[in-house]
Write a structure and sequence with these properties.
Layout (H helix, E strand, L loop, with lengths): L3 E10 L3 E2 L3 E3 L2 H14 L4 E10 L4 E2 L3 E7 L6
Length: about 80
Amino acid sequence: MPATTRIIYQPYARGQRPGQAVVCRDEMEGRRRAEKAMAAGSIEGAHVVRVRVDEDAGDYGEPEFLLSLGQVPTPA
């Protein structure tokens, strides 16, 4: 299977603890999820990233940060 692009919404709870990551259909869905959760006060921050994945080989590319909201860890 060839590499595919994944959009991932990563929420962060109090203390910048990562919550459950969610694979999104597209960038707009990731943005909507992050903005909605921030507006509701259910998270302290969120990242939305794009990453290339080859699941058969177990290879993951470097994430491209598309959106960062609120209190989030600094990307390495």
